[in-house]
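Protocol step 6 of 9: fold each sequence in the batch and record its C-alpha cells directly after the sequence line. For illustration, a two-sequence batch is reproduced in full.

Sequence one:
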Amino acid sequence: MTTPARMFALKRALATLAFAAGVCGFAGISTATNHPADNGSATTIIGANPLLSDGASALEAGQAEEGLRLTLAGLSAPGSLHDLAAGHANACAAFVMLKQWSEALEQCNQSIEMDHSNWRAFNNRAAIYVAKGLYDLAIRDIEAGLVLAPNSQILHESMRVAKRNKRIIESTGRRSVPS
C-alpha cells in the first residue's frame, strides 16, 4: 500500500520531471567556435542564419511548434558546422518541449556528434533521459555539460532535479516516475 508520504513524493517527482523538461537550455546560434563568452547562462547568441535565429527566439518564447518549424527549415540551409550543431540542439529542445522523446534524442545526438563543446545539447539530452527515467545517463550528460560550463545555473539545477528524482524512484521501488 502506498503511504500518503510516498504519494506526495511521487507527485513531487512528477512536478519535478515537468520542471526538468522545462529547464533544458536552448542551444542558441553562435559563430564562436569555442563559446569563449558563454559562462553557462541562458543567453542565446544569434548567428547568420535568420531561420535558425528566429527558431531560437520562438523557442525562448515558449512557441515549440513554430520554433521547431523554423529551426528545421534553417537546418536545410548551408551553414557552419557549429551553427548546424546548435540548430540540432535547438530542434532537440523543441522536441523535448513537445515530449517527442525519440525525435529529441536523435537531434541531440546529431548536435553532440557535430560539436562536442555545446553544454546545452548535453543538458537537453539529459532532460530526455530524465523523462525516460534513465537518471544515470542524465547525470552523466549533466556532468559533461558542467565540464564545459561549470558556472551554469541551468546545469546545476538540472543536476539537482535528476539526483532528486533518482532518489525518489529508488525509494519507491519504481523504474521511473509515472507520467
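Sequence two, same batch, same settings:
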Amino acid sequence: MPSAWMNGATVPMGRTGNTTLTCRFSSMAPMSTSPDPIHQAPTPLPSAGGRRWVQRADGDRRALGRLRMLESEGVIVLNDRRAPGAASSPIKRIAISSGGVFVLDAKHVKGLVTTRRSGPVSNLGPDELHVGRRNCTLWIEQVAHQMDVVRDALEAMVGGSDVPVHAMLCLTRAEWGVASPVEIREVCVAWPQLITGRVQAGGLMDSPTVREVAGTLADRLPAT
C-alpha cells in the first residue's frame, strides 16, 4: 500500500483504480515555548487583610485630597511628619497660617456623626465619637496626641508656647445631623469646607512669624 511521509514516518493512504495516492506532510512546526494563557497558573488574589489595607490607603488619599485647598497664599503645609524616635503614627498634615498651627487628619468614612457617653448613669464617662455604628473615638485620641507632639516641638522657639495649636479631624463623607462641628477633648470634628475656612481665616501671626513657626516644626518634626 502506498504511503505518505510524516516527519520521516510513512502513513498508508490507499489506491483509486490503478493510481496510487500519495501525500507528503511537511514537518510539523515545533511547539511554542510560550506558556498557554489558558493553562497558566491563576494570579493569586490579595488576602482580605491586603484588600483592607489598599482600601484604607486609597481612602486616606482621597480624604486628604479634599484638604488640598488649604494650600493657598499665607498658609504653609507640612505633610507626613513624625517626632524623632516616636513609634506612633505620623502626623498626616500640619497647616500653619496667621490663625495658628492646625494639626489635621482626614477620614473617608460614611455615617451619621454623633457623640455618646456609654458609662453607667452614676458615671457616664467621657464623650465618644461615633460615625454610624462605628466607635471612632480612637481617632480623637490620635489627633489629640499629635497636637501635644506639635506643642512640645514649638517649645524650641522663643514664644513657641504662645502659638495657638488646634487639632482638627476632617470627616469627608460623613452625615451631620446639625450644622455645627463636634468638639471632643480639644479636637474639632468637622467637614472639609469648615476646616478650610478656619485655617484660612485671619489671625494674630504675621508672615515672618508664620514662616518661623513652620521652619521650627520642619526641623523638629522631620518628614517620614
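Proceed to step 7 once all outputs are recorded. Observation for sequence two: Residues 69-220 form one domain.
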